[in-house]
């Protein structure tokens, strides 16, 4: 950054100097003319001729430089301009040697109009001859030996000037190129930054959308597993109470069960709002919790449900245990709702890398491949179960056939609390 501003400042100064130098020839021409007018002892050609030449020179400079500044890049035009300037300089020096002051500005035109070392060397030599002639007393030359010495000095000056001008121009071109490259790099950097910002915003939006989707899925699962299941159980118990109106003991039992279900569902609903794990898992380990769920379900539905645990039970990540418990609850709820089963067997197996839960019933069975629609009546349970398992890198398999019972198998990674810590 510092480099760029330093180079740019130098370039501004160079341009200002160039601008200032453009006024010098006019000043030198006016001064030379005034000197001719006041120095009556220096020989000169007739004033009208001088006036014509001075006016022509002024016009020539104004036309080529002030009025057409863009012609500076046209090599052909600049060649014509320079040739004209050289002719006018020689004519003016021929009119009076005092125009040597103006002749000197020919070096400036060499730098302005000519490109390349050779052209500038030729231009500088022509100007050096003119200034040499003026310094040697004008045309015709009175002393050739004196002229030779003066010419030698002028040629030395011309060469030095040519060398310096070429160097300055080359450096200036390099600086301009450098500024351009830096500006280009800056623009590229700015574009890359803008692009990055866009990508960042896009990533944020995607992450937000993914978060919203995940949370919506989680809430839908919770509503299904906690509220809908609880309400289904309550409705079933109330219907049973209705049917047992003549048997006060049975009626009371169904009502109490409905009350208990309502209370449990309320507790679970509150816990899921706070994203806490189920109450049963808070109090006992997973095998006991599933055993309690099975026993409660069995008591309510009058169907035998047994849990067998194999392997060595060990505490798993809360999210994994909750998922297995919900799987057992939904599988049992399905048996109660759809299977008309006489017996349910639950198997919880702790293996080295995975833990599986099988829920088998001997009920009516169904065709798992048959297309199923999610509607107000339900149809969300198995899909929600699969989603939940997927979130913890688990899998679900449903094996069933009409008349041959149903087996629901969940398999989850056995990530223990210790391993996760
Ligand atoms: N154990 C089972 N025995 C017989 N049929 C079953 C069993 N489990 C599931 N089904 C069948 O699979 C369908 C889909 O079950 P799913 O749990 O997805 O939905 P649902 O129980 O009908 O409604 P929801 O669970 O959303 O309240 C059920 O409608 C039922 O026909
Ligand atoms: Mg269901």
Automatic annotation (TrEMBL):
Annotated InterPro entries: HATPase_C_sf, HATPase_dom, His_kinase_dom, Sensor_HK_TwoCompSys, Sig_transdc_His_kin-like_C, Sig_transdc_His_kin_sub3_dim/P, Sig_transdc_His_kinase_ChrS
Location in or out of the cell: Cytoplasm
Keyword vocabulary terms for this entry: 4Fe-4S, Coiled coil, Cytoplasm, Iron, Iron-sulfur, Kinase, Membrane, Metal-binding, Transferase, Transmembrane, Transmembrane helix, Two-component regulatory system
Needed cofactors: [4Fe-4S] cluster
Transmembrane segments: 20-40, 47-66, 78-109, 121-138, 144-165
Pfam family, any one: HisKA_3
Domain of life: Bacteria
Domain Histidine kinase: from-to ranges: 324-416
EC number: 2.7.13.3
Coiled-coil annotated residue ranges, if any: 175-202
UniProt xrefs under SUPFAM superfamilies: ATPase domain of HSP90 chaperone/DNA topoisomerase II/histidine kinase
EC class name: transferase
Reaction(s) the record says it catalyses: ATP + protein L-histidine = ADP + protein N-phospho-L-histidine
Function per UniProt: Member of the two-component regulatory system NreB/NreC involved in the control of dissimilatory nitrate/nitrite reduction in response to oxygen. NreB functions as a direct oxygen sensor histidine kinase which is autophosphorylated, in the absence of oxygen, probably at the conserved histidine residue, and transfers its phosphate group probably to a conserved aspartate residue of NreC. NreB/NreC activates the expression of the nitrate (narGHJI) and nitrite (nir) reductase operons, as well as the putative nitrate transporter gene narT.
Alphabetical list of PANTHER family matching this protein: NITRATE/NITRITE SENSOR PROTEIN NARX-RELATED, SENSORY TRANSDUCTION HISTIDINE KINASE
Name of this chain's protein: Oxygen sensor histidine kinase NreB
Organism per entry: Paractinoplanes durhamensis
């Amino acid at each position: 950054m510092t480099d760029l501003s330093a180079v740019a400042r130098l370039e501004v100064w160079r341009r200002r100097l160039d601008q200032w130098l453009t006024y010098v020839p006019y000043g030198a021409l006016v001064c030379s003319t005034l000197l001719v007018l006041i120095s009556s002892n220096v020989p000169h050609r007739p004033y009208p001729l001088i006036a014509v030449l001075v006016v022509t020179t002024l016009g020539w400079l104004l036309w080529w430089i002030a009025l057409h500044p863009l012609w500076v890049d046209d090599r052909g035009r600049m060649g014509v301009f320079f040739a004209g300037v050289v002719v006018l300089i020689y004519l003016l020096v021929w009119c009076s040697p005092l125009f040597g002051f103006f002749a000197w500005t020919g070096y400036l035109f060499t730098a302005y109009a000519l490109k390349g070392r050779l052209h500038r060397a030729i231009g500088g030599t022509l100007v050096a001859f003119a200034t040499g002639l003026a310094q040697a007393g004008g045309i015709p030359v009175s002393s050739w030996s004196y002229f030779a010495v003066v010419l030698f000095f002028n040629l030395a000056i011309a060469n030095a000037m040519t060398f310096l001008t070429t160097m300055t121009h080359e450096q200036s071109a390099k600086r301009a190129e450098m500024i351009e490259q830096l500006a280009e790099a800056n623009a590229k950097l700015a574009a890359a930054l803008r692009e990055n910002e866009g990508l960042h915003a896009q990533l944020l939006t995607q992450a937000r959308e993914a978060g919203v989707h995940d949370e919506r899925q989680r809430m839908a699962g919770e509503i299904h597993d906690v509220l809908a299941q609880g309400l289904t159980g309550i409705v079933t118990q109330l219907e049973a109470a209705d049917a047992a109106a003549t048997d006060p003991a049975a009626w009371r039992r169904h009502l109490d069960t409905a009350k208990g279900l309502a209370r449990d569902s309320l507790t679970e609903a509150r816990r899921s709002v706070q994203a806490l794990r189920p109450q049963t898992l808070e109090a006992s380990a997973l095998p006991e919790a599933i055993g309690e769920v099975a026993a409660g379900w069995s008591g309510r539905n009058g169907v035998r449900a047994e849990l067998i645990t194999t392997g060595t039970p060990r505490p798993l990540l809360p999210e994994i245990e909750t998922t297995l418990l919900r799987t057992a609850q939904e599988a049992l709820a399905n048996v109660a709702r759809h299977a008309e089963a006489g017996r349910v067997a639950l198997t919880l197996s702790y293996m080295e890398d995975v833990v599986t839960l099988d829920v088998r019933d001997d009920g009516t069975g169904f065709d798992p491949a048959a297309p199923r629609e999610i509607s107000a009546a339900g149809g969300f349970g198995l899909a929600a179960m699969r989603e939940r398992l997927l979130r913890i890198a688990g899998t679900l398999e449903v094996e069933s056939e009409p008349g041959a019972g149903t087996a629901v198998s969940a398999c989850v990674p056995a990530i223990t609390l210790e391993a996760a810590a």
